[in-house]
């Protein structure tokens, strides 16, 4: 059920954006209520970037590796900020700007579309690409169409006269048919990138930081550092272990533990769930084998889309959704185990420490 809720929340912006986009193609105007659009825009343009920002800011071979290289991601976020400014300016303004500013705004909108395409490929997640990047692309295309329509209407009402050479060039670009206009605007994105890259050199970025933000990572679409993860052993990602990574005041971590030689965060929910599995494995091995085979499928799904699940707010929700199961597990433990707390305490510690505990208890 928890997965269905998450998919629904991610699919809602896509559904609304698609309806609005198709309505525009058919009727030539936006068909979705303006208030609903504002909410969807916040969900698509603010929440999705936040999910990326809230990731662990490090390269890690064990599933929670940074989407963008920590050393070079500043370049990405500066571009994202400018693209967001261009979008919301296009949506909320009442009249067109000067020709030069119009060219800049439309160029950044195109740059945002291209960047989202590359991010969708890089994350290597169909779910994120469809539910996350596609709504942004559709809404940005509609913003470009709105700008085109506004410029045509303004040109018909007033005779725009360029004040200098730059405005003359900008007006000549804006007056082109879309089939010629947008490729030229895309080409103009290149000098914009050069200017931003040059300025960002002052903040420690490199001339190729835009490219290295994608390539200097692990296990993503454009990653070139996967070889560094060879022979690295990692533990699985399952529901309770994801939930344990939430905000401490909610999930209440108890201690650190060890799983497959890797340190993990343990809270009581995780320890109880593992103790329950330990009891089932001990008393009903055939049932445990079946349950474990099904649960491994859940772990593989979470690992595949860990860019979504590796978020503290998502972990908080999973922790709360797992509470009824936690109560069921503790009921079974206290009903069929003579020393349930001892079994719980022995989870996720070394084999040597478990033997010592068994010896003294």
Structure description:
This protein is mainly α and 361 residues long. The chain has two domains: 227 residues, no CATH class; 122 residues, no CATH class. The chain is 70% helix and 4% strand. It contains 17 helices and two strands. A two-stranded antiparallel sheet has the order 1-2. Strand 1 and strand 2 form a beta hairpin. Helix 1 packs across helix 2 and helix 11 packs across helix 15. It starts with a helix and ends with a helix. The N terminus is likely disordered.
List the helices and strands in order: HHHHHHHHHHEEHHHHHHH
Number of domains: 2
Number of strands: 2
Strand content: under 5%
Number of helical elements? 17
Which descriptor suits the 3D outline? elongated
Which regions have little confidence, pLDDT < 50, spanning 5+ residues?
1-5
Report, as a whole number of angstroms, the end-to-end distance: 40 Å
Q: Give the proportion of residues in helices.
A: 55-70%
C-alpha Rg, in Å?
Answer: 26 Å
Give the mean pLDDT: 80
Strand arrangement, largest sheet? 1-2
- The computed structural class is mainly alpha
Q: How would you characterize the largest beta sheet?
A: 2 strands, antiparallel
Summarize the structure.
The protein has about 350 residues and is mainly alpha-helical.
Notable features of this structure?
361 residues, mainly alpha, two-stranded antiparallel sheet, 2 strands, 70% helix, elongated
């Amino acid at each position: 059920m928890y997965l269905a809720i998450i998919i629904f929340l991610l699919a809602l912006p896509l559904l609304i954006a698609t309806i609005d986009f198709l309505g525009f193609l058919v009727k030539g105007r936006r068909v979705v209520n303006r208030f609903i659009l504002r909410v969807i825009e916040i969900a698509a343009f603010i929440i999705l970037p936040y999910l990326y920002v809230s990731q662990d800011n490090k390269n890690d071979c064990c599933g929670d590796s940074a989407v963008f290289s920590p050393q070079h991601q500043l370049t990405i976020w500066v571009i994202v900020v400018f693209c967001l400014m261009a979008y919301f300016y296009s949506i909320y303004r009442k009249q067109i700007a000067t020709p030069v500013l119009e060219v800049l705004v439309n160029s950044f909108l195109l740059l945002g579309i291209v960047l989202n395409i590359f991010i969708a490929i890089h994350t290597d997640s169909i779910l994120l690409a469809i539910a996350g990047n596609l709504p942004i692309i559709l809404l940005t295309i509609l913003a470009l169409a709105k700008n085109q329509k506004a410029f045509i209407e303004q040109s018909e009402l007033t005779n725009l006269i360029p004040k200098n050479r730059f405005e003359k060039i900008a007006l000549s670009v804006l007056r082109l048919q879309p089939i010629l206009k947008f490729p030229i605007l895309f080409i103009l994105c290149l000098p914009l990138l050069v200017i931003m890259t040059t300025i960002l050199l002052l903040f420690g970025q490199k001339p190729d930081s835009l490219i290295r933000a994608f390539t200097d990572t692990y296990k993503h679409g454009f990653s070139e550092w996967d070889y560094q993860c060879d022979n690295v052993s990692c533990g699985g990602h399952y529901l309770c272990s994801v939930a344990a990574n939430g905000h401490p005041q909610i999930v209440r971590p108890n201690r650190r533990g060890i799983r497959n030689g890797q340190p993990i965060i343990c809270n009581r929910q995780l320890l109880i769930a593992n103790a329950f599995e330990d009891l089932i494995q001990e008393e009903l091995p055939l049932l445990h084998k079946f349950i474990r085979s099904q649960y491994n499928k859940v772990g593989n799904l979470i690992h595949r889309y860990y860019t979504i699940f590796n978020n503290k707010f998502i972990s908080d929700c999973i922790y709360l959704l797992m509470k009824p199961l936690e109560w069921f597990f503790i009921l079974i433990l206290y009903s069929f185990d003579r020393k349930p707390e001892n079994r719980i305490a022995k989870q996720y510690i070394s084999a040597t420490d478990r033997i010592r505990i068994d010896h003294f208890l």
